[in-house]
Input
Amino acid sequence: MALLIDGKKISSEIKEELKTEVGRLKEEGISVCLAVIQVGDDPASTVYVGNKKKACAYIGIESRSYRLPEEVSQEELLGLIGDLNRDDSVDGILVQLPVPAHLNEKEIIRAIAPGKDVDGFHPENVGALSIGEEGFVSCTPAGIIQLLKRSGITIEGKECVVVGRSNIVGKPMAMLLLKENGTVTVCHSRTRNLSQVCRRADILVAAVGKPRFFDDSYVKEGTVVIDVGIHRGEDGKLCGDVDTEKVSRIVSAITPVPGGVGPMTIAMLMNNCVEAARRKRSS
Output
């Protein structure tokens, strides 16, 4: 039976490490502050923002919430981001996505100062990752690297297949695996013979957004499977992009859903906030 990679446990370890570091920074008179902007009252966004605030409170990071009405203008939202950019007491800025359709998401992401872009979405941070320079990395891919490393799984020299090419997961995931000396293939909706390509993988990252899409025909014996998807099935239970029941008989390790990749995303967001405070003080 496959090893279940416990994202809850590993994220808790990271949070404990960050809590200790934040305590040490406070002794030096340095506080860490995250500003979170939510537009409208989307229930899922409200839950995500609440989870981020809880994590901040546990670690000792100050969190400031800005809830704007659904009909807020682009100009008003950009004005608030500009104010937070200029506020030296704020280390990280996050706009909870998605935003209402009348707002320009790309312009919002670009408006956040790269040094406060703890989501790692700004083009300057994405560019820094691609050329191996210092910057903030998108939290989910960064969390996956930690899951692998802290589970004793070697990336160097391995055949890594990433299925999905989004700017938030697929593309940065591929670059991080390359940085760790993996041999990386990126697949997508136009990839031919997808199952054959996936069966080459020593490490398979599944991020297509389709429930239980990957069954045992997509993996070889001993593969490590990282399941990024999260869905609610017809039975009301949460599931991922991988059919865990079928796949776990063959693979060597797999992340469960829930409790795998999900908890790591917030842990790495907290890590980016602490890193932002560290960089600001050392500059």
Q: What stands out?
A: The chain has two domains: 29-113, 139-262. The domain at 29-113 is CATH 3.40.50.10860 (Rossmann fold).
